[in-house]
Every structure is written in structure tokens, then in C-alpha cells.
# Entry
Amino acid sequence: MAQPLFRSPPGTRDLMPPDTDRMRAMVSVFADEATKAGFGQVTPPMFEDIGVFVRLGEATDVVTKELYSFEDKGGRTIALRPEQTASLCRVFVEQRPLTPWKAWYYGANFRYEASQKGRYRQFDQVGAEVIGSADPDLDTELIALAARFYERLGLRNVRLMVNSLGDPADRAAYTEALRNYFTDNVADLTEQSQETLARNPLRVMDSKREPDQAIIASAPTLADFLSSEAAAAFDRVQAGLKAMNIPFDIEPRLVRGLDYYNRTTFEFAAESLDAAQNAVGGGGRYDGLVANLGGPDEPGIGFALGVDRTLLACDAEGVMGAPATNPQVWIVAATAGVEGIAIVDQLRRLGLRVDKAESSKSMKAQMKRANKSGADVAVIIGEDELARGEASIKPLRGQGDQHSVPIEQLETAVQEYLE
Ligand code: AMP
# Structure
């Protein structure tokens, strides 16, 4: 075969059945869980003024290195969204919905990353945000929404890790302690982490690079810097999770990438995947972000779950098979008229999955195609059947012989057969 002239760009994939079917089913499970929990779906644009994302923090990789940005024909500097929390905060500031505002979303994000399995330049996330309340029970509810979603997909090996980043003052004191600690050990850090240290010592904790691990393991932990209010909120979240029987580990070194997080922070790791790529989702509080985007000083909390990566976790655990998409009925119509497509339409309107081969093909060729179609039953009409006002039903799988039925009884006969 000739080489294709074009291929999909690096870091992108052509999603095809059955994965497209499985992803759609996954999103619909999430939509159902979110709707039950009182969240409304919000769909912001895929691109925004670059400022919306720059406000996420200058020390964040998604902003400094990975943003797809360009000048549009009107001279605006636009960026493709690398995530949707900032967009939802922008929506909140612009639309001013009632608080607490509970919103969920689904869609593609774009990051210019070094691509590999489970890490793409275009990937889908589902997520949820609550803006306008600092109530720690909302943190618990939100974590539960994600946990119940994974549970409903059938995933059993997803580990929930939680931590508290404290309030800004706690975090500032902790950041200083980390700066001192990492500076003392700077020679043992990787070059990338040395650079990160200069920008934001907290983010060094995020490094998954092997040589950094030993240094990170002995770093000071935030727990020792929490204010009494932040500590009480964290206790409340833990009590809530216990009351819901949602297992979790406290992970004192969980700091997550984005700069605007405070208090509760959490991450879900699929233990069936390689450690480097096993984060299937995460989130946390971002009490300063809305104000930072020019809005009122409203607190917020949210999470984003990677759809592509969650699907990999489902593969690894052998759950979440594709919903049935094979045709149930295959129409073989070798008549001169349009009887065949009329029957296709009639049976589809009953809710069945129905297809047929091209009318120009011979009866024999159409039967061959029917046998390969994966359908449960074929409905055959030729000129003879048509003249008698009948159609033939031929089971393609399992037991039973071909038999004729009057055309008026076709719907019932097909439905009975499929039961
Ligand atoms: P983040 O928005 O970075 O907090 O990521 C939330 C989740 O999105 C992660 O846990 C991943 O499952 C997923 N994710 C983030 N970046 C990528 C990517 N480049 N490719 C695929 N999934 C990603």
C-alpha cells in the first residue's frame, strides 16, 4: 500500500470504534453521576484570551512551555485551552450564576507535551467545579463524585490520595522551608528540578524523576505548617470520606502542579498502569483563582479526570467493554424498488440497529456480506417474496431455520426473534 500523504500530528490520535464508543459511554456515566449530584453541564470555548490561562501562574508548565497560542486575524492573542478550570472561572466571572455554582464539563484540552502512551497533545477530560463556597463538605462531595464515577466504570485499583496545602500564609512558610531544604541539597537534584526550584520550590515536589525522589522523600511536609483552620477543614474532609466508606491515603507530599491550589488537594492513581503515567485524575481547592481573574473573592474547588488515561486503566483492569454497536438486523433486498431501504427505516424507528448492503449487489453478494456483518438476523426480500407480500427471516447466529412471514408481521417477528 502507498504511504499516506498525511498522518495525524505527533501527540494526537485518530480515535476509532470501539474506543470512541467506550469513551462516549464513559462520559455518559460521568454526566449521570454529575447530574445526580446537582451539577449542570457547561461548555466553554476551546480557545480563550491567553490571559485567562496565564493567570493560572507563571511557574506552571502548562502555561510557560505547553500552551498552544497564536495571534488571530483580529490581532488578539489566543490560546487553546490546556485545561478547563480557568475557563470555568472566567465563565463564572462573566455570567455570575447563583452560588454555590456547581458545573461539570467534558472536552478536549491541548498541551504541547513530549508525547508518549497516556500523554497526548490533545486529550479529553471530564471535570467538575464548585465555586462560591469554602464548606469542606463540598470538598468531600466532589471527591466522592470522582470516586463513584471510577467505581461505576468497574475500576477497582484506583487509589485516592489526599493532602492539604493549607492557606496562603501556611503555604508561604512551607515554601520557604522547602526552598531552604532544596537549596541545601541542590547538587543532588536533576537539572530540571534545579530550574523549577528557582521558580517555585513547591513544584519540585511534583517531580517524578528518579534522581529527585530520594531528596523529595526527606523533604519537610506541609502538615507541620497548617493553620488551625486549615487543619480543621482537612479533618472534616477525612471524616466525611470515612463516613462514605471511600478509602484514601493521606499523601503529605502531594502538591500537584498548578500554583493556585490551597487547602484540600487530591489525586487518583490507577495502580494497574505504569507509575509514570498512572495519574488518572486530580483536583483541589483554588480559593484565589476567581479573584485573580478579576472576579469576586469567591472560593472554588474542582477536579479534572483524564478520559484517555481512564480508558487505559479500564483496559488494564479488563472493565468497561464497548457497548454493543453491531447491527442486530441485516436487510438483504434484491428487488428493483426501494422496499429494502423502507424496511431499514421502519426497523430503525423501532429502536433496532439495522443496516444493509448496497442495493446494486446481487442477492448472493448481499448474503455473503450479511454473514460477515455480525448481525443476529437477516431479513431477505427478493422479487418472489415481494410478489407474495412476504419477507424471509434468516437467523445468522444460533438456532433456527429461515422462514417467511407476511410483511405486516415483520416488525413483531424480528422483535420476537431478537428477544
Ligand atoms: P491536570 O489537568 O494536569 O491536573 O490533569 C488531570 C488529569 O488529566 C491527569 O490525571 C491525566 O489523567 C489527564 N491528563 C493530563 N495531561 C494529559 C495528557 N497530556 N495526555 C493525557 N491525559 C492527560
About this structure: The two ends are 44 Å apart (CA to CA). Residues 83, 111, 113, 119-120, 123, 125, 257, 279-282, 304, 306, 308-309 surround adenosine monophosphate (CB under 6 Å). Residues 181 and 396 are 71 Å apart (CA to CA). The first helix runs from residue 19 to 36.
